[in-house]
Amino acid sequence: MQPALTVSDASLDQYIHTNFEIELLDSTSTFTEGPIWSPEGYYLFSDNTENTISKIEPGKPRQVYLPDSGCSQLKEDVLPEMKGSNGLGYDANGHLIICQHGNHDIARYDGKDIVPFITEYQNNPFNSPND
Fold it and tell me: What is the pTM of this model?
């Protein structure tokens, strides 16, 4: 059975397609955040509690795209349950931008390395960057 979609204002019909099907792509993740569609044609999302960014390509099962995506130094003082990455985005050069809970910064992934990009605001370190 498909979920019902209720559109309260018919003028939205030009923006919202109501003829669609919902498809379950993965049921093994624990706490997902930061979904983003890659220009290369795949879907990325953070699994915060697993400290990974996962990738789903059409017709393929979920795979780990980046391990240790939110916390590279597992310490007891970092958010023990919410240590992974959260919000994701792309910069103007196509590099993945990652909000990192455990590392307390915003990082950039260039296809090879995750490096800190913004680590503080007004000389104060971040607590846990989010979307």
Answer: 0.79
